[in-house]
Amino acid sequence: MEIYADVLFLINFTASYLMLALTAKATRNKAKPARLAAASAAGGALSIACFFAGSIGVVIRLAGGVLMIIISFGAARIVTRTVIFMIMSALVSAAFALIGSIFGEGVISVRNGVAYFDLPQNIFVITFIAAYVLIMVITEVIKRKKDVKIHTLTVRYNGCSVNVKALSDSGNTLKEPVSGKSVVIAEWRTIYPLFDGADYNDLINNMDRYRLRIVPYHSLGNKNGMIFAFLADDIIISDEKRSAGKIYIGITREQLSKTNEYNALIGASV
After folding, report:
1. Taking 60 as the threshold, does the pLDDT of residue 220 lie above it?
2. To pair with 208 at 20 to 30 A between CA atoms, which of 34, 99, 149, 264?
């Protein structure tokens, strides 16, 4: 396979921009396109040296990766961003290796981690777009999984206690209007043992007995909703080994998680 320096530069300029854009998304950094382009140009130029440099090319590639991160994002969090950039690089390389296996031998040449593709232009463009979309989806899934935090709560009331799994929900800003205390939303099926075996209807018909409050709320599709809530004697956030004190528990008969991963919602202010 003949290797052309200008094609090698273009391929790795495009690949570098793709990987830097994915790194920016994964690290939630709003990098300027001009800086990404400058870093990608450096990456494209270094790829030529790296491709023909022999064994020292690996060192050039690693140093080039760090340089591209600095140009794109600055020196802050350089280790984290460099590691993520290298992961993105590996994912992109794997995607292109798959393309090589589809189109046959001799289509891709890789030296010191730098790839050269002998592909028609239209297939080359489609490959990069598909790789970007695929890796962006994977990155988003990983980020969402990482952002999901579930706490173990021990709710104490009337001499009884129950344990619930509460999803940390920044969108839950619900507060009891009189006291201003935060409200944790919990499924009735999880907390009913706190009420001596009473059923839900008995609870609602005897609000004074069970010291219930009506808490108004607004949600998508329900602008004037109401939820019944009681003031817990104490809430222990077991995984953080701390007490949240007396917090209102809003009762819902709806299932909060389709997979039963959690059965309560806790706001960031608790």
Report:
1. no
2. 264
86: Cα within 13 Å, side-chain hemisphere: 14
DSSP 175: B
**Would you state the structure tokens that stand for residue 69, as one six-digit string?**
């991160």
3-state secondary structure of 230: strand
How confident is residue 168, by pLDDT bands cut at 50, 70 and 90? confident
Q: Return the beta strands (E) in the chain as ranges.
A: 108-111, 114-117, 150-157, 160-168, 183-187, 212-219, 222-231, 234-237, 242-245, 248-252, 264-266
Buried b (16+ CB within 10 A) or exposed e, 62-80: eebbbebbbbbbeeeeeee
**Sheet containing 248-252: order of strands:** 212-219, 222-231, 248-252, 183-187, 264-266, 160-168, 150-157, 234-237, 242-245
**64, two tokens:** 């080039």
Strands 248-252 and 160-168, bridge-based pairing? unpaired
The model scores a pTM over 0.85: no
Helix (H, G, I), strand (E, B) or coil at 116: strand
| Residue 229: φ, ψ to 5° | -140, 150
CB atoms within 10 A of CB 117: 22
